[in-house]
Specification:
The chain is an alpha/beta fold. Helices cover about 40% and strands about 15% of the residues. The protein contains nine helices and eight strands. The chain has an eight-stranded parallel sheet with strand order 1-2-3-4-5-6-7-8. Strand 5, helix 5 and strand 6 form a beta-alpha-beta unit. The longest helix is centred in the middle third of the chain and has 18 residues.
Length: about 250
């Protein structure tokens, strides 16, 4: 089963042609699309996408890049949604130490509070881990969650091993398609296939062939082909194994 484990189909970039984008994904063979929220104000948008588009499922969370506009009371709102809406995961949550003007202390507070919610509801998490893998691993060891996905993984092989030990899968997508992304491509080639899931992060992280244009979930087919080439196997095997991995870690799929 071809599963896009990370796609922001609710994003404004798709407002003019969301129906066509979803239709193209289905036509390409993408059977499931996980849509993570990024703010409490965006929860309804994700819910509406899931209701409208077959194969789409929700994850609910507050993204670290949006914590400066979030309120502490948003955690209680999120708690209610997790209780009522049956999402597949808490996400997109995490830390981002690349963007300099996002208060790291505030990021950590929102991250920890959402880890508590994941623990409360026995849900996996979808993690944003940019330049913050070690502090994220520190908190994951503390909370001992059900696992989840380290989205857009770009760490070391050793860090990958630590996520795997904690029950996490690692998300690979458009960045892997660039010949210059040597570390990511090496990881995609060498990591156990049981640890890998596919994603687009559409409309972001476009693959090389889009020339920095808008990404879309239909591109997942060619992304799977790239992973197959890197690993010296067939695209059908990659689709079957990464799909099975996604269903293991996101059991409500």
């Amino acid at each position: 089963m071809l599963i896009d484990t990370h796609c922001h189909l609710d994003a404004a970039e798709f407002d003019l042609d969301r129906d066509a984008v979803h239709g193209a994904a289905l036509a390409a063979g993408v059977e499931r699309i996980v849509i993570p929220s990024v703010t409490v104000n965006g929860l309804n948008g994700v819910k509406n996408c899931v209701a409208r588009y077959p194969g789409c499922v929700a994850a609910y969370g507050i993204h670290p890049l949006y914590v400066m506009t979030a309120r502490e009371g948003d955690i209680a709102v999120l708690q209610h949604w997790l209780a009522e809406e049956n999402p597949v995961a808490v996400g997109e949550i995490g830390l981002d130490h690349f963007v300099e003007n996002i208060d790291p202390i505030r990021q950590e507070w929102f991250f920890i509070e959402q880890l508590k919610l994941a623990k409360e509801f026995d849900l996996p998490v979808i993690l944003h881990v940019r330049r913050a893998i070690d502090p994220i691993l520190k908190q994951l060891r503390r909370f001992k969650l059900k696992g989840g996905i380290a989205h857009a993984f770009n760490g070391s092989a050793q860090q990958a091993d630590e996520f795997i030990k904690l029950g996490f899968k690692l998300g690979f997508g458009g960045a892997m398609t660039y010949s210059g992304s040597t570390r990511i491509r090496q990881l995609a080639s060498d990591l156990p296939i049981d640890a890998i899931v596919l994603e687009t992060d559409a409309p972001d992280i476009p693959p090389a062939w889009l020339n920095r244009g808008r990404n879309a979930p239909a591109e997942l087919v060619r992304i799977a082909n790239v992973l197959a080439e890197l690993r010296g196997t067939s695209a059908s095997e990659i689709i079957a194994k990464t799909g099975a991995n996604a269903r293991v870690v996101l059991s409500r799929l």
